[in-house]
Amino acid sequence: MAASPAPSPPRALARRRTSTLSVTSLALWAFCCCLAACSGGGAPHAAPGPAPAPAPPGEPPAAPAAIAEPPCPRATSLDGQAIRGEAVCLLRRYLRIDTTNPPGNEAAAARFLRSFLDQEGIESTTVESAPGRANLVARLPGDGSKKAIALAHHMDVVAATASDWQAPPFDGVLRDGAIWGRGALDNKGPGIIELLSFALLKRLAAPLARDVVLVAVADEEAGGAHGARYLVEKRLDLLRDVELVLNEGGAILELPDKKLLYTVEFAQKAPLWLRIVAEGPPGHGSSPKGDSSTRRLIRALARLERHEFPLTVVPEVQALFTARAAAMPEGRRAAFEDLERSLQQPAFREEFLSDPMNRVLVRNTISITMLSGSANENVVPSQASAVADLRLLPGQDPEAVIAEIKRVLNEPSVSVQPILSWRAHASPIDTALFRAIGDLAQRRDPGARVTPNIIGGFTDCNAFRSKGITCYGFMPIHLTRADTERVHGRDERISAEALERGATAMFELVRSVAGR
């Protein structure tokens, strides 16, 4: 079970995801989304678009601009153009809701989603974890013969500086067949893919053995204390009988050789954010002292920078390399099928660790990300601090790692304060959902490989896994390396074609797992 959730980090500490851990994981953060106000086949919504529903008392009113917008097209079949028209229209509107975290303001996004579901005749529940921080859950009932599957995405996004972009990041601009906006890939695009496939299950009266649950959460970009972690700790009843979850974390990666790789995240390293605080006598900068807070901090951090955690091959990593070995030349397979033993051989170890993507899979890592000291150039502060971002392999004990860090620092008047901490959990890959992803690959992209993957960043899957729920990071969206590099970066966007194909593939995948 996961350690108790830590308090949400200070607002100045917006999370930066680490780079992914393998060529496979380049697709992990990107999820397809298209925002074009394009026309398409199908009937229009009876009411104007998904205009925000009235705000509950105490919440800011919905934006009047959204109310005045014309209705989005409405797909009533699996016709690609009709699905593209609706998905693009919905995503453009979703992207115009600024949910930059902090502060989040996910309540406005939840009202947008709720309005759409109301028009579809689908009941939903909105749960506030704090003022303005909302989570939404809706459910399509099955016949109860199998446990439920959930489609999850987060409504918050990271900050975007408009002057750095070629198009305004919160306008949902359609340009050259792609939809531009913060969240187009992470994570509002996938949200629209899930929302539309969820609605199509109802519109087309798909017979269901499982309940299908739509989950839209707050605060993922800052650790999830107001979102997924809040739901699993305070409102787990809304996830009753859920045994499978699809979430962000993997996609269909288009490799340089034109081959396709379906990457399915089944495990991730856990974040351990630590604030390291040094104290010492304050004074004037012209009279330096050996026991000042800054000197103590520098000495401690120098020791930390030199520290390396031991090589460790956890079962999840061995499973990953065993799966990869199947596609390797026969002469190389054995070394990767027993990685712990192979790493004891100097030549293999040197070659393996020369790849930075491999290095982070076999040891815990440390990055010093923030430094703080005096507010004045000529004042020695009484306190100086740093923030260290550690990423722990699945199964590692955060308390044991903190104790190790304290031993490494070995400096008087230096303390360590946890900011964010939980244990990493993994999902099994011998499940109906994982097999269904493999079947989807063979139907839609014959010859594509399906591989389990581990990522260095963290997602809401870890919150669901902490309650024993199998969660996979996978969205059926074709992505290139260039697409993934825009996540959390400039000019984030995705093509209308990718959005359409993602929505139809998601419908097909969910129907195959949940249908009867």
User: Count of helical segments?
Assistant: 16
Overall 3D form:
globular
Helical coverage, percent range: 25-40%
CATH top level assignment of the largest domain = Alpha Beta
Total individual domains: 2
Number of beta strands: 21
Give the N-to-C terminal Cα separation: 33 Å
Lateral arrangement of strands in the main beta sheet:
3-4-8-5-9-19
CATH superfamily of the largest domain: Zn peptidases
Query: Class by helix and strand content?
Result: alpha/beta
Beta strand %: 15-25%
What is Rg? 24 Å
Unreliable parts: 1-53, 62-66
Instruction: Let me know the largest β-sheet.
Output: 6 strands, mixed
* Average pLDDT score: 89
Describe the structure.
The strands form six sheets. Strands 3-4-8-5-9-19 form a six-stranded mixed beta sheet, sandwiched between helices. It has a four-stranded mixed beta sheet with strand order 18-11-10-20. Strands 14-16-12-17 form a four-stranded antiparallel beta sheet. It has two domains: 24-268 and 424-514, Zn peptidases (Aminopeptidase, 3-Layer(aba) Sandwich), CATH 3.40.630; 270-421, Alpha-Beta Plaits (2-Layer Sandwich), CATH 3.30.70. It is globular, with a radius of gyration of 24 Å. A hairpin with a 2-residue loop joins strand 3 (124-130) and strand 4 (133-140). It is of the alpha/beta class and 516 residues long. Helix content is 31%, strand content 22%.
